[in-house]
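pipeline/complex-builder :: batch 7 item 3
reading input block
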Amino acid sequence: MKRRWYGAAAAVLALAFGGGLTAQTQEETQRGIEAYRQALQQGNPAELFEAQGEELWKKPMGPRNGTLEQCDLGVGPGKVAGAYARLPRYFADTDKVQDLESRLLTCMERYWGIDVQPVIDAAYTAPAKREIIALTTYVSGESKDVVVDVRPTHPKERAAFELGKRMFFFQGGSHDFSCATCHSEDGKRIRLQDLPNITERKGSALGWGSWPAYRVSAGQMWTMQWRIQDCFRQMRFPEPIYTSEATIALSVYMAATASGETMRTPGIKR
Amino acid sequence: MKKPILAAVAATAFLAFAAPATAQTAWGPGADDAAFQAMLRASFRERPGAPLTRLEQDPVQAFCSDPAASQSRAAAATAERLERENFAAVKFPADGQFLGDWRRGEAIAQSGRGLTWTDGANQANGGNCYNCHQISEAEISFGTIGPSLLGYGKLRGNTPEVQRTTWAKIWNSKSSNACSNMPRAGHMGILTEAQIKDIMALLLDPQSPVNK
Amino acid sequence: MTSPMRIRANVRDGVVDVRVLMAHEMETGQRVENGRPVPAWFINEVVATHNGKTVMTAQWGPAVSKNPYLQFRFRGGAAGEKIAIKWTDNRGESRTDEATIA
């Protein structure tokens, strides 16, 4: 496997150095990168996190010694299949629009009886985030190949969509960046990294539909919340709080825009 | 989806006509200014090197955050005014020297460091240039958000006018295009005057690999 | 504490295709965290057994990635039979998991 990845990378370099930077060579470079990504798909270590998450879903935990098997992710208590493809959505019991991660926090609080504030405050690499990352990966895997169906109808869902859209175009910070700076045109890259155009259906699905994802270079499992947090870091913004309103609003905007496309979760990235 | 946008544009046009000085924003129900500001306040926290003041917009940022309005014909006059204001704020080099060292410029162009909450305060900021631009032929890992700058000086020459235009673009990209995607390296204090001279040399020095 | 491997084994025309995902930190010994070097900790041997017979061995080093993926093929397996994978790391810790050939 190692050798194959190396081979793909070498091919990319050879192609790039070989013929100068004609349009054709750039296309070949792109194909080399694509081949490398496909090689990664074969053995996605996200599966290891899915297995951990599945175990956690069924295991009695916390002061209440309960399990998440009664957790309602929006498609009925304990139902996991297809749930992620319909999130975020409005939940009457919390009177909030919730994404998967914030809904899991609600259930961990309710059935495990734990204080979730330390989970919210912890760094993504801290032990306190391990369980929710594994659970998110597991639930996302149960929506693999399921069609995204997030169509804001409840007034709070509609408001979240509009707020998310406004957030997407909001410029700030030392560099005047917004999400749209990088994600509102087709075929753009940062360095060699392709950037999905999140303002339209297919592009939004490339982004929304591939997180959580295992990141090979770091050996880390990143959830959508982590992905959004790191985008804002690179935009030179202050830190978005875990499962805060802005992150969920952005998620509604992305998921609703991607509706009709297919979830490819959990994903794998370089 | 289509309808609210049209309505928004129409509303903006009307308001802009009535009161050209204020850039009006019009978002869907539930996303008015008060709701949006409340969301911003509740959703972000300060980290060392990334203060909450980064969420306070200057006129350009506010204007460009509503593309449906800022790209409308009615907003053209506002865009021009913002460009004039940003151009007036450009600081040209005090000593009249525009070009530094292209080798140092290449290192600055390569670096994407600085001003995030994971960057230490003790290192020089980078220019992030290769993230979006092709610059020298040797670097194949370049982004495509901005145009290719390969052969920049060779194509344009190294005249005083080209130097002034290029300086203004790097110092404050909004001086010629109000909603350019490019950061305002000098205006926002991302790069120092000396660093911008080095970037200038990378683009304009006939010895720079950009112009070979 | 070790985590289970994910093993898939499929036979086609007498050739078994085995795909294994292992959960392991694979520390190189080159990394520094909070000013202190993180000690090397990696799988250095992988052995695959089919019907008590070793069908593949691999000697690994710290250059292999975290959570490694391994794919190999061998001849002579049949559906319903078991394949066992055992890894051993440089701390002497080991783990064995089994899968049924499909």
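note: The two ends of chain A are 14 Å apart (CA to CA).
queue -> next item
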